[in-house]
Amino acid sequence: MTAPPMGTPPGPPVPDVGIPPRLARRMSMAEQYEYLRTKFTRRRALVSAGAVAGGLLAGCSGPGSGSDAATRSPSPLSGGSTPTERVDGAVVTPFGRHLAFGADPRTQMRISWQVPLTVRKPYVRVGLKPWELSRKIEAEVRDLHTPGLDGVRLALDQFYLHAALDGLRPGTTYYYGVGHEGFDPASKERHSTVGSFTTAPARAEKFVFTAFGDQGVTPDALANDKLILGREPAFHLHAGDICYADVTGHGKESDIYDPTAWDLFLKQTETVAKTI
Ligand SMILES: [Fe+2]
């Protein structure tokens, strides 16, 4: 995947994960990942044993860690570290939030998002007012590892988080924030990350929905997202193809899967999918 040529509309916003924004815009997700990993691995060598004992970078039990993580091969550029080494949660910003109704759209919502590095205790807070969010509702971590291919692709770990909200009120707008240890969406400095969604009404009534497929990650795709927002749909039906992570698209074993295409897509679509 190549960067759009100069003069095209700007791409999706780059999440603030500790890389200077001007630099981050020129980097692919994989490059950002390696930048952060190198940065924090270097920092690790400088922190005292006391800081490690305090939990800053110490391994701990929990989703995505443990023996499975310990046996994973490090990326060729990692300098021996693995992406499951934890960093201070304050410098890891969630991105790619996307919503989906549960089986009952009146009372159930599923919230998913991503973090670029391993975090502890990810969660959602939800409430009827943006300034009145609930206690933490634990999220499930799904850690996806894509092995590297010589000369083609670096190994990549992706950390997806999922939370299920049940027992919601029909026809009600809720506010929510996603976080983890060190990053609390209810705190003053993180409050701009709070999003919202509306559950389906208790009784059937007229509604608008939007639908299309073959979106990908391009300036045109971003423009289509803006069209969706303008319609204020109750939901969007995405028919696929979604992000074209398999560039050739032949569905054959010889196809080369690019996991970073999903990162780009989920960043692009967040403007819509965080509320619709
Ligand atoms: Fe297609």
Brief account:
This protein is α+β, with helices and mostly antiparallel strands. It has helices at 21-25, 29-46, 49-53, 67-70, 219-231, 260-273, and strands at 95-101, 109-115, 123-127, 137-138, 140-146, 156-165, 173-179, 195-198, 209-212, 235-238. Mean pLDDT is 78; it is low at 1-17 and 41-81.
Describe the structure.
The protein is of the alpha+beta class. The protein has one domain (21-273): Purple acid phosphatase-like, N-terminal (Immunoglobulin-like). Helix content is 21%, strand content 21%. A hairpin with a 7-residue loop joins strand 1 (95-101) and strand 2. Helix 5 (219-231) runs parallel beside helix 6. 29% of the residues are buried. Bound molecules: fe (ii) ion (FE2). Fe (ii) ion (FE2) binds at residues 214, 241.
Structural class: alpha+beta
Query: What percent of residues adopt helix (DSSP H or I)?
Result: 10-25%
Count of strand segments: 10
Task: Give unreliable regions as ranges.
Answer: 1-17, 41-81
CATH fold label: Immunoglobulin-like
Number of helices: 6
Q: CATH superfamily membership, which one?
A: Purple acid phosphatase-like, N-terminal
Order of helices and strands: HHHHEEEEEEEEEHEH
Q: How many domain regions?
A: 1
Report the radius of gyration as a whole number of Å.
Answer: 19 Å
Name every ligand kind in the structure: fe (ii) ion
Strand % is 15-25%
- Main-sheet strand order equals 1-2-6-5
Please state the average pLDDT score: 78
**What's the architecture, going by CATH?**
Sandwich
In the CATH scheme, the class would be Mainly Beta
N- to C-terminal separation?
Answer: 27 Å
> Main β-sheet, in a few words?
4 strands, antiparallel
Shape: globular
